[in-house]
Amino acid sequence: MSAPNGVMARTAAAERGRRKGTLWPTVRAIYIIWYRDVLRYWRDRARLVASLAQPLLFLIVFGTGLSSALSGAGGLGGAAGAAAGLTYTQFIFPGIIGMSVLFSAIFASMSIVWDREFGFLKEVLVAPIDRSAVAIGKSLGGATQAMVQGLILLILAPVIGVKLTLGSVVALVPLVFVLAFALSSMGVAIASRMKSMQGFQVVVNFLMMPMFFLSGALFPLNGLPTWMTVLTRLDPATYGMDPLRRVVLGGAGLPSVALDRLGLTLFDTVLPIVAEAAILLGFGIVMLAIAVRNFRVRD
Question: What Rg value do the Cα atoms of the chain yield, rounded?
Fold first, then answer.
């Protein structure tokens, strides 16, 4: 019995030594993969400009068109009606920021499929590093791109009448990053199982639009039918959109009573922003763990 135990002990020691020896190369690989994705994003100015078109379209079309219709019907109505003087365009502005983060974060993971088709991913996977470096580097790279994309939209705040304070902008940075990280990790987890660009686009398009419309980006989440309320609470993007709206509109001077009525409730309790961020961060960590496992079990 001692011989097998000795072999197992030596095997475990060798495995620990191997992981220790690859720790620094793995950290460097995470940085390089992150830097490569951010550099490609920064150099592709056409992509940067084009990715602003959809949020602007939603803001102009939905904000102008539905604002006129809702004002004729007596305002936003329901929970949002408590926000006296708040236009529909101002109401959806934080949701449009979240939409930009959502689309940018998930589509950033598309580079995994490209890298697989062009052979770059194979070269990385055979390198003497832990395969988790690919998942972590891609998730952080996508999160950084999506965060920058979302924060750029803050320049539109004065145009639509939303006044931002320095404190609200500082508070938005970690919230936007947590949302971007969670969605980017989900995109990497999906892309790690996809073998073709067509398959990835089908799955992503199937998920993104329901996630966006159920997140509360375009309408208040309180007072909905029971079945829709359940769906909105199961949507991870919901826990990112709500903090963005409360921080942006709170910084713009919206009364705390109105913010509480607009806030996301769970079991008849308004969730604190910290709790929402924790839920979103937990979801991102779970998705990242799934992505890491997918890369480790690949041939």
Answer: 22
What amino acid occupies position 60?
A: I
The one-letter amino acid code at 285 reads: I
Residue 217 to residues 76, 91, 102, 161, Cα–Cα distance (Å): 14, 9, 11, 18
Count the residues in the chain. 299
Residue 98 CB partners (closer than 8 Å, separation 6+): 150, 179, 215, 217, 237, 240, 241, 244
CA pair distance 77, 84, nearest whole angstrom: 11
Torsion of CA 91, 92, 98, 100, to 10 degrees: -140
Pair 121, 260: CB distance under 8 Å: no
Q: What is the DSSP letter of 264?
A: -
Residue with tokens 């940018």: 104
Q: Tell me phi and psi for residue 74, to 5 degrees.
A: 105, 25
- Structural tokens at position 55: 């949020």
Type of residue at 131: R
Q: What are the residue boundaries of the structural domains of the chain, listed by start?
A: 2-296
The pLDDT tens digits of the residues spanning 203-231 come to 888 888 899 989 888 888 877 888 898 99
Backbone angles phi, psi at 203, to 5 degrees: -65, -45
Per-residue pLDDT reduced to its tens digit, 56-96: 887 877 777 766 665 554 455 444 444 446 778 888 899 99
**Could you tell me the sign of the dihedral formed by the alpha carbons of 96, 193, 137, 236, in that order?**
positive
Q: Write the DSSP symbol of residue 195.
A: -
